[in-house]
Design brief:
The complex is a heterotetramer, with two copies of chain A (136 residues) and two copies of chain B (82 residues). Chain A has 136 residues and is of the alpha+beta class. Chain A has a single domain (28-131), classed as Molybdopterin biosynthesis MoaE subunit (Aldehyde Oxidoreductase, domain 3), CATH 3.90.1170.40. Chain A is built from three helices and nine strands, in the order βαβββαβββαββ. In chain A, the strands form two sheets. In chain A, strands 3, 4, 6, 8 and 9 form a five-stranded antiparallel beta sheet that branches. Chain A starts with a strand and ends in a 5-residue tail after the last strand. Chain B has a single domain, classed as Roll (Ubiquitin-like (UB roll)). Helices cover 22% and strands 28% of the residues of chain B. Chain B has two helices and five strands; from the N terminus they run βαβαβββ. In chain B, a hairpin with a 2-residue loop joins β3 and β4. The relative contact order of chain B is 0.27. Classes of the chains: A alpha+beta (136), B alpha+beta (82). The interface between A and C is medium-sized, with 30 and 30 residues. β2 of chain A pairs antiparallel with β2 of chain C, so a sheet runs across the interface.
């Protein structure tokens, strides 16, 4: 299941959705807003998405992961809007029979999301702001 | 025939142009590469961005793809989700 | 934090304990009881531990992970006793600044637990039972 | 001097012997390897186990480690946690 949302991510609900009686391994990755980046103090992050395409690109990644690994269930949830320190920006959950598949698929999904999905993050520091990756 | 295409702007491209979409005149048989050239002429500040891709109807497009006025076009600056 | 317990694993509490304002990535691995193994239908698992040594061996693994990766917080929780299909047998959680460390440390911890920690699992099938790994 | 050491048994070793600990007579200067030999003589069914390690005072022990009656000794069949 793929979700792009302005609401806080409900980890318990995500876990519930991953359950499968055949699952022996579940890997859950959380991308969290931390209080600093490159030694600059972060006040908040502002996420913006090209919604329609962000969802279809995340679906492509999930489809590719399903081809490469024996996935029983997965969930991808990405936040948009203003996020404060400690909030979860992205949750990837993968349930598989065996643990290697869960770890590898989960990592593939988050790594690829960061490369191809049209979502943009502005870091708002205590002393300025910048769109991440935008500048040479 | 004079026509134009509307281009959606996000992130730094929206900030630099001050607009969330811009209308760009479209010559017949214009390609994605032509659109990028026109946008750079119209908004020289776009040159400060590390890379710019174009999406057409929600899919990444090559520079030789031909555009039509009904396409949903978007400028895609470097993504930074996750 | 390291826990060996007969009680169900509380994932929400584990997540809470992992929080850190410097954390940008949290990886959580769950080992779950699945309904079959090698095509045999599983009724339940029975876990037994040499408690004192299981805890000290898990602590050694955590210490080694802390040396190898920049870990902000971790939690390792292992169940003992009778576990039914869908129950969580083990939870590993690692919080780091960057995601590669979280994935790698989490996987190292679960892989090494399976090699060195004196915990034993009996698979009780619908038609028999066996101590896992015990036989040649 | 006649003495003995108590050996904790877990998992398959407990099932095979029907006991959760056994007392093994200990000669002076007896080593972990000697204990394993005695246990195998006393409980031939242990031979069916893929491997057997010994822990002394909660630490994996080499076969040449010398045992004393006050040691906490445990037989460690192949682990299968996780």
């Amino acid at each position: 299941m793929i979700t792009l949302t302005s609401d806080p991510i409900d980890i318990t609900a995500a876990l519930q959705q991953l359950q499968s009686s055949q699952a022996g391994a579940i890997d859950i990755f959380l991308g969290v807003v931390r209080d600093n980046t490159q030694q600059r103090s972060v006040d908040r992050l502002e996420y913006e998405a090209y919604d329609r395409m962000a969802i279809s690109e995340m679906q492509k990644i999930a489809d590719e992961a399903n081809k490469r690994w024996a996935i029983l269930n997965y969930t991808i949830i990405h936040r948009k809007g203003v996020l404060r320190i400690g909030e979860t920006a992205v949750l990837i959950g993968v349930a598989t029979a065996h643990r290697a598949d869960a770890f590898e698929a989960c990592r593939f999904i988050i790594d690829t999301i960061k490369q191809t999905v049209p979502i943009w993050k502005k870091e708002v520091f205590t002393d300025g702001e910048q769109w991440v990756n935008a500048h040479p | 025939m004079n026509s134009s295409v509307s281009v959606l702007l996000f992130g730094i491209t929206r900030d630099l142009t001050g607009q969330s979409s811009v209308s760009v005149p479209l010559l017949e048989e214009a390609r994605v590469g032509d659109l990028l050239t026109q946008l750079h002429q119209q908004y020289p500040q776009l040159a400060g961005i590390r890379s710019l891709l174009v999406a057409v109807n929600g899919e990444y497009a090559e520079t030789d793809q031909i555009l039509t006025p009904s396409d949903e076009v978007a400028l895609i600056p470097p993504v930074s989700g996750g």
